[in-house]
Each structure stands twice: as structure tokens, then as C-alpha cells.
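Quick question: what would this complex look like in 3D?
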Amino acid sequence: MTTTKTPTGKGGPAGRSAGKGTATGAPLRSKILVTAILAVATCYFVLPVYWVFVAATKTTSDLFNTHGFLLGDTFALWGNIADVLTYHDGIFWRWTLNSVFYSVFGALLATLLAAAAGYALAKYDFRGRELVFGMVLGGVLVPAAATALPLYLLFSQIGLANTYWAVLLPSLISPFGLYLCRIYADASVPDSVIEAARLEGAGEGRIFFGLGLRMMAPALVTVFLFQLVGIWNNFFLPLVMLADEELYPITLGLVTWQSYQGRDIEMYMRVVTGSMLSVIPLIIAIIVLQRYWRGGMTAGAVKG
Amino acid sequence: MTTTTRPHSDPTRPERRSGPPPKRRFKAGALTPWGFLAPFLGLFVLCFVLPILYAVHQSFVQVRRHGLFGELDRESVFAGFGNYARALDQDAFVDSIGRVLLFGIIQVPVMLGFALALALLLESASAKWPGFFRAMYFMPYGVPGVVATLLWGFLYVPGLSPIVDVAGLVGIELDPLGDGTVLWSIANIITWLFIGYNMLILIAQLKTIPSELYESARIDGAGPFQLARHVQLPLIRPALVLTTIFSIIGTLQLFAEPQILAGFTATIDSAYTPNMAAYNSAFTDNDYNVAAAQSVIVALTAFVLSFGFLWSVNRKDRQR
């Protein structure tokens, strides 16, 4: 990967938008048409989220008796939220904290491990390097669900099944993160800087923690975010590993509530309101942190 | 690599920094990279390699129980391909493979087609507020598949769904959870979740196209469609190949969405997808050996399809 220096210093996007600037003369008709298409597409993506925000304001009877896209007769949002947060001794809080713990702690450690491994693959020349890289990338192709079952059997033999570790440990491995870190370390940590640090007597660990990590920071944010979302959204692994409701993440908890819907009609509103509460944090994260989501996800795939 | 390190400056583990480091003028010793790799590789072996080996092993043995209720003794005996034969003997499992293949043949091209169209539109000069639209399309990626299925599930259930209501008003009878339609209702959930993600990968690659190429295409008088066909599409092929492979693997793994949608309708049985079948073999039938065989079959199918796709893409390249 070559780092083309653009005078603006902002890299690719700036270069493109400069090209775009000359083309703002695109005919008004096509502008309106394209923007209209984009707006219609937006409706599709927003529809279910809009529905859940509307539905969460309703009472159970309004949920079934008023039109889904319009507000109901009573505005019951606050009561619904209070009900979700206090139901069953506030188990929803517990699930939220578990989800936060699994995803934040897991993603942080996963990023650090991927950074160290990617840095080693990029900056050291050693036998077996390509073998290790190929093996880990091969891991991407193995369906995660195919490893979850045997992993459960292994973990139950060593007493790890149905513990926090059972969900946390497998979440610490991000083959995609390793891939991205290697590419990025290759491109952004110059050998000369490492050599200079060595000449000043810095140890290898210190060079990595002091220089390497800092220079790889933009890629690390991307790796962290993708791993965070991956763990937060995971369902199969906790489903297989956990039996104790106290250890559940939000996803598994909501599904448990959904399975009670048939017996208890009140559960409908709890599933709806709980779903609404659970999408808020990540939707905010996606929109606020938008610029970090594009950081060269396929930068390496370009050159194959 | 230079190997002029003196004996006393042999690599210490990277974390250890106590004492003044010996003056190392040359490249670190051969063990240093392994120190950086060790935590990742250790967990990789534990969570990827061992389970795969274990699954393969389990798929070739059978547990024999002795005593009236199997309480006396259990032993594992080699079963050859017996478990595979038993797995493929279940019609429901074979049907589930056919079902996800059909799903993939339709859903993957549709999803990637839309992702590509949105990426091209957003990167075209005609799009207003591309940042806003991009965020909106990517937003579903942050919604867990579980929650997305619950939301769409409510939008599918006849008594609740405003969509069914609205369609009824204009005279269309919708039954998203019916026998013939439910597979495509699942396809819609997956498409909704992942269009934005795939679009983002495609946009990242579109942004690597040098602006001079756009410039010269414009000078040659290329319209937006010719530009897409002759400049953009060929140059983002690697990203298209990548997203296709990810989608193939994802399709074979289908689990959460059908499993949860089954809570809304009886048209989804417990072996609707291969992974659901394996899950049920393991946890309902307590037959881990058949479950392992089913997992291996799923993984092998993913491998064959991914590499088959790569192979056909490369072959076409060579023919050009």
C-alpha cells in the first residue's frame, strides 16, 4: 500500500471531493432524481426503527388495536420503560451491564491482541510468518457457528461453560482485526522509526507500546468498533454457552422474554420496549462515530 | 535478517522492561515476534483450532452405552462415516441445505446489487447529503440480528403488522409468515441488516479510484452509466468478490433470524437451516456426534462454495 500524500493531508476522500467539486454542475434533474431515490431507500432502513419507537409509547391494548405507524390513544412510554427496568428485580439492567462488559472489555482486549500480532507479522521477518497469517485468515472462512458447538463441549469439560469466560474468551479473537492491523502497521509504522528507537536502546515491547500502538491508532479504532458491534450482536455463542439468566447479554434476554409472549400478553410490551432501549446505544455510536467506520476496510484487498 | 545478536541480548519477553535494556544495534532475536503473537495465537488455538479438530474427531466416533439405561459405562468407538450417513439420512437436514442454497442464490445477488447501486449513487456527483444517507443505510448494522428479527417479526405478524394493514387497504393480501413466503421474509431481514455494511466496503474501494480516471473518462464523454460500467465496476471487483464470499459464508450460517422468527410462526420448523438442525441434534436430541457431523458438513460446504466462487472468478480473469 502506498501512502499518497495529498496537499490537504486528508487522503483519499479529499481528493475525490475535489474531483466532485468540478462536477457540481451535474444537471439539476439528475440531482433531484438521485436524491429522491436515496430518500426512498432511507424509508426502508428507518421503517422498523421508527415502528419500535412508536410502539414503545403504547399500552398493550393500543399495540394491538391502533395503527402501527401512528401514535396510540395513551402515551405510555415512561411507564413502559419503568416496567422493563424493574421487571423481575431489574434483570434488564443486569443484561445491559453484561452486554457492555462482554463487548467493551472484549473488544478492547481483542484490539490489543490483534494489534500486537499484526505488528509482529508486519514488522518482523521470521520463519512461519506467512503460515500463521494464512492459518488465521483461513479461520475467517470457518463458520463461527460451526466452532461454537464443539467449543461448548470443550469448555464444559474444563468447567468454563456457563461462566463469563465462556463468552469472553472466544470474543477476544478477531481474524479480521489481525488482517487490518498487519496491513496498517505495514503502511504506517516506518522501519526507520523502529531502528532509531532501537539505537536509542528502547526494548522491543517499549517500541510497540510507545510508538507502534500510537501510529496504528486509526486502524485500532476501526478494529475496536467492528469487534464491539460483533460481540454486542452475538447470539449463537451466548445461547450455546450460557444457562444462567444472570450471565445473559441483552440479545439472549430479549429472546427469553419473547418466548414468554404466548403465555403472558404483557410480555409483548416488554419485548418492544426492551428492543427499543437496546438499539439506542449502538445507533448513536454508529452515527456519531461515522467517520471511523470506513477506515480502509479493504485497503489490503485492493492489491490482492 | 541479521543474526549478530550477542548471547546476553537474547530476546526477553516483550512485556518485560525491567532494568536498562542491553544495547541492541540490530534486529531483535528470533523469539520476539512470537512473544507478540503468543496471546493471539494461544486463544486462536483454543477457540478455533481445537474446536475444529474436536468436531472432526467427534464426527467420526459414536458413544456406546452399557447397562439398561446406559448408566454403567460409556465408550467411544470409531464409527467411520456413520454419523455423516445418519446426518444425511435426515430429510429435514438435507432440505435445510437446499433451502439455504436457494436463499443464497437469490438473496446474495439482490443484497449486493442494492448495496452496489447505493454505493454508486452516493459516490456520484448527483447525490445530496451523502454523509447523512450513508449513516442511515449503515445504521441497521448496529442493530443486533436478534432485535432486527423481533422488530420485523412484529411487522410480519398479521394481527399487529401495519404493513399488512396498509397492503390490505390497497387490496393486496400479504402473508409474510406463510409457507412459501417466510423464507423471503427472512431474506428481507438479512438484506436490511447487511446492505449498509456491504455498501461501506464498496464505497471504501470506490474511494481508492484516482480522480484522474474520472477526469479522463469525463473528457472522453462517458456518462454516469458508462463510467460505472467501464471504470468503477472493474476497479472495485476485489471488493465485490470479498463481499460475495462473506455473504456466502453468512448465508450458510443462518441461525438467529429463523430461530427467533420461529417464535412468531409455526411455518419454521426446528431444522429450518443446517445450523438449526445441528443445534437441535446437540441440545434436543443430545446427539453430539451427529451434531458434529452436521457442523463439519456446513463448514465444508462453505469452503467449497467460497473457493469455487474464487476459482470461477479467477478463471474468468485469465480468459480475458
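Answer marked as accepted. Residues 78-293 of chain A form a domain with the MetI-like fold fold (CATH 1.10.3720.10).
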